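Risk mitigation, structural track. In case the binding assays with magnesium ion fail to produce interpretable data, a predicted complex structure has been prepared as a fallback.
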Amino acid sequence: EETSEAHRPIKIAEVGSRHDELWDISLRARIDDAMQAGEIFCVYQPKIDTVAGTLTGVEALVRWHDPERGFIPPMKFIAQCEKAGRMEHLTRYVLQTACNAGRLLHFRGTAISMSVNISATLLGDMRIVGIVRNTLQATGFDARYLILEITETSRIGDLETAAAILTELKALGLRISIDDFGVGSANFETLFELPFDELKIDRLFVDSISRSAKARAITSSMVAMGNAARITVVAEGAEDAKTLQILNEIGCRYVQGYALARPLSLTNLLEYKVSSKEVASGT
Ligand code: C2E
Ligand code: MG
Ligand code: MG
Ligand code: MG
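Fallback model:
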């Protein structure tokens, strides 16, 4: 098991808050170099079908290991990437890395899906469609196995434009997922207007279902809604066996979380096997 999360960010804590702004600026200046230097890479977190006990796919999660600063959390540098206008560039890089990894997995006989996070800020114009199309062509990865997770849906500027772009993307053969559902205003209007195939319930809810009846009721209704609409529902952030069992009881079949697997390096992913004792089915 992983891994890179283990020796995580010591150096970041040393940066005092008054230096934050300066630090952010130098971070922005370093992003392009870091991509060139290979300091930015992906890890892959398994998404498990807990009923069948199989690996259905992985989510590519970007990592930045700066030789001087250590690991920089994605939430931190993604925000900087947005500010610096480099989000499109980072996304192209991650897509290419992930599709290459997906292709390799398929070659090795592991035909699983590959999920890539796409910031909603890129749904403002059609350029993202060209980027995805070109990446699929260049890598030879089968579009039917690609899932684009739309994050930060609250930042969708114009729903109609976003819906049109997602429709074009789906026409390439891939699937669309709404990430962090329940937080960040992925509201019912968003759900109603956007074409998508999967909902990912945010960790905020999943993490609490073993302790809070309220969280359990809310999560259960999100699962029921998705199941009724024939949309794949994925719970993210399941950290223990009890949470897995409750997810099983409320009919949430697909799960990601530390209880099942941490994000893995590609090398570790190639060796990964779902262990039957890890899944909730039958318990
Ligand atoms: P996300 O897409 O919702 O990804 C799930 C996050 O939850 C990941 O954090 C993952 O490592 C973490 N996680 C998964 N299972 C558990 C668990 O059981 N317990 C806990 N405590 N955490 C768990 P990570 O990798 O730090 O990524 C944070 C966010 O950064 C992602 O949230 C996503 O919004 C964003 N992100 C990551 N990679 C990319 C990328 O390539 N592009 C864009 N636009 N955003 C990305
Ligand atoms: Mg995601
Ligand atoms: Mg999420
Ligand atoms: Mg999240």
